[in-house]
Structures are given as C-alpha cells and as structure tokens.
C-alpha cells in the first residue's frame, strides 16, 4: 500500500501540517500509519481535503463539515443544508453584484457630483435596502476565523 507522508499531503494540498493535524483532531481526515513520528495518509485524503476546502469556501464551518463525514469517512451530505447554503450564496452574489456595479459606476461616472447622478442615486438606493451585515465584510471575517481555526489558534 502506498502512503503519503504528512509533508507530501501538505505540499500537494496547500494545507500546513498543523492544519492537517487539526483536521485529524476534528475527525475530518485520518492518518493510517506512522513512519517514525510522521503521520501517513492514504492518497484519498487529497480528495477529502479538496472537499473540505470547497465546503469552507461555501461558508461551512469545520464542525459542520465534520458532521458530513461518517465514521468511515464516507460523505453524508445533508441536501437541505446544501440548498440553504446555495440560497445564501445567491443572496451574497446579488449583494456583491450591486456593490461591484456601484463601484464601477462611481469610478467611471461623468457627472461633476455623484449626488447629481441619477444612476448613482438609484444604485445607492438599492444598496441601502439590502440587509445589513455586508456580504464582503462577513466573508472576510468568516475566512479570517477559518484561517485561525485551520492553524489551531
């Protein structure tokens, strides 16, 4: 059987060894052997790590992701949660699209004052009606928390 050393898994997956140890502690992945003090993994761990990365990018916490892996590491994807997350992403995409359009218009607006520009005022009105908790800010806070969680801090 061919095993991958923790260093090779880290290198090939883009995760740090400490993140891999943290994922193992949470039950997201598991080593199958040791070579000296170094953990050894089956090659399938790389697919699991891609799934974890995609789940984090979608906004799932590591704890939520751990609940999606069974005892034998088989996936048990809760379809309703996936639909809810997809709906949440749709809302964030809508918010970010309005924000992007507003920024592009402001950058290129020929009006002498943005407050005299009807397009800017319309975009501002749409942005003002969006739910608070800015999607961009929330995304950065979530990613920062995940990075701290990944490193075990």
From TrEMBL:
Keywords of this entry: DNA-binding, Transcription, Transcription regulation
Residue ranges occupied by any HTH merR-type domain in the UniProt entry: 3-71
Alphabetical list of CDD domains matching this protein: HTH_MerR-like_sg6
PROSITE patterns associated with the record: HTH_MERR_2
Gene Ontology molecular function: DNA binding; DNA-binding transcription factor activity
InterPro entries reported for this sequence: DNA-bd_dom_put_sf (IPR009061), MerR-type_HTH_dom (IPR000551), MerR_fam (IPR047057), Tscrpt_reg_MerR_DNA-bd (IPR015358)
Protein name (database record): MerR family transcriptional regulator
Source organism per UniProt: Tatumella citrea
């Amino acid at each position: 059987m061919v095993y991958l050393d923790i260093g090779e898994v880290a290198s090939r997956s883009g995760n740090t060894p400490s993140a891999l140890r943290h994922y193992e502690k949470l039950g997201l992945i598991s080593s199958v052997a040791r070579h000296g003090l170094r953990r050894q993994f089956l090659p399938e761990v790389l697919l699991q790590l891609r799934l974890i990365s995609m789940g984090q990018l979608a906004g799932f916490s590591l704890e939520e992701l751990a609940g999606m892996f069974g005892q034998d590491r088989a996936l048990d994807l809760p379809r309703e949660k996936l639909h809810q997350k997809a709906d949440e992403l749709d809302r964030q995409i809508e918010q970010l699209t309005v924000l992007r359009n507003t920024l592009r218009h402001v950058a290129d607006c020929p009006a002498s004052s943005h407050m005299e520009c009807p397009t800017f005022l319309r975009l501002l009105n749409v942005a003002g009606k969006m739910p608070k908790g800015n999607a961009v800010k929330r995304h950065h806070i979530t990613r920062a928390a995940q990075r701290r969680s990944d490193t075990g801090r």
